[in-house]
């Protein structure tokens, strides 16, 4: 599965101002470009009956702030300012639905590993981007690359540098003809996929690995856990082995860019059901929540009203 071409929009929010898409430029000697000193969020805008709405925007911005704090990157804008800027950007681009990238990184000012003298550049961009895994049942391959050790890179921080680990794993899997990579922690337990959290279903119990396995504490993961509890499903956040996925009744992955996507096979071992009952129910309820069709979750939506 190759990369998707960029669907350009008209405007990007850069350091407090709306600028033309091709005018959003930074210096080639920006610290973050060389050393991965940045934090990011992927957020989605969905088309609802009441117009476009951003899904769980406060939670995404709160995680951006936490990530920046953990990596000692100063954010020049508050979450409230970034929320307002997000709505302004979506409105300016005229998107009914889109993917959003919130991004803060150390810019031009100094070189070398010392982070203290480089100012922070802050960006919000939005573009039309379909579910990047296509929504069809996936073929996974366990990667030879292990997930970053939680004691060397904090998994709760969504930093840019550690994504090299994900990019290498994804490239290995797609070059071998698979859709996505499954990464294991250093001790061999299941961590996550290159850009999605992973879930198993067995005996009606839903399981997903903990952050201690190097997995990001995903906002879509939290959404799925909430939806499952509301359906009366038993959920457990606990350590999993690769064999637990082989033996599962159902496996699925989830993430902001992907949505909720079933898994057909892992390492050429076909699962009993490529689109199991619980996976279907959760995918349907997730879709209802993000599009405003399920009123119970309306508090997760930040509306983008026309000016």
Automatic annotation (TrEMBL):
EC number(s) recorded for this UniProt protein: 2.6.1.42
Top enzyme class of this protein?
Answer: transferase
Top-level taxon of origin: Bacteria
The UniProt record lists the keyword ATP-binding: no
Q: Where is this region: Disordered?
A: 143-162
Q: Which keywords fit this entry according to its UniProt record? A: Amino-acid biosynthesis, Aminotransferase, Branched-chain amino acid biosynthesis, Pyridoxal phosphate, Transferase
Give the protein's cofactors: pyridoxal 5'-phosphate
Q: In which pathway does it act?
A: Amino-acid biosynthesis; L-valine biosynthesis; L-valine from pyruvate: step 4/4; Amino-acid biosynthesis; L-isoleucine biosynthesis; L-isoleucine from 2-oxobutanoate: step 4/4; Amino-acid biosynthesis; L-leucine biosynthesis; L-leucine from 3-methyl-2-oxobutanoate: step 4/4
- NCBIfam families per the UniProt record, alphabetical: ilvE_I (TIGR01122), PRK06606.1 (NF005146)
Q: What is this protein called?
A: Branched-chain-amino-acid aminotransferase
State the gene name recorded for this protein: ilvE
């Amino acid at each position: 599965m190759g990369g998707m071409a960029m669907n350009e929009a008209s405007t990007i929010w850069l350091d407090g101002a709306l600028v033309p898409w091709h005018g959003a430029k930074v210096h080639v000697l920006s610290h973050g470009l060389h050393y991965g000193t940045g934090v990011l969020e992927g957020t989605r805008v969905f088309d609802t009956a009441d117009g476009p709405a951003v899904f769980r925007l406060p939670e995404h911005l709160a995680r951006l702030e936490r990530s920046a704090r953990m990596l000692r990157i100063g954010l020049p804008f508050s979450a409230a300012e970034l929320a307002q800027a997000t709505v302004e950007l979506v409105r300016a681009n005229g998107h009914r639905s889109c993917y959003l990238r919130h991004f803060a990184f150390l810019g031009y000012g100094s070189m070398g590993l010392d982070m203290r003298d480089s100012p922070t550049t802050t960006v919000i961009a939005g573009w039309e981007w379909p579910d990047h895994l296509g929504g069809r049942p996936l073929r996974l391959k366990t990667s030879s690359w292990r997930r970053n050790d939680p004691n060397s890179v904090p998994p709760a921080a969504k930093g840019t540098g550690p994504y090299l680990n994900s990019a290498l794993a994804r490239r290995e899997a797609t070059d071998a003809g698979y859709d996505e990579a499954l990464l294991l922690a250093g001790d061999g337990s299941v961590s996550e996929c290159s850009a999605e959290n992973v879930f198993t279903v067995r005996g009606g119990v839903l399981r997903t690995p903990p952050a201690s396995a190097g997995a990001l504490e995903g906002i879509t993961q939290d959404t799925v856990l909430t939806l499952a509890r509301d359906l009366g499903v038993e959920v457990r956040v606990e350590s999993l082995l690769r064999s637990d996925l082989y033996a599962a009744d159902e496996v699925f992955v989830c993430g902001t860019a992907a949505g909720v996507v079933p898994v057909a096979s892992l390492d050429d071992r076909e699962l009993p059901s490529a689109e199991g009952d619980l996976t279907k129910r959760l995918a349907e309820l997730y879709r209802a929540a993000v599009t405003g069709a399920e009123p119970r979750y309306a508090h997760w939506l930040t509306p983008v009203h026309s000016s």
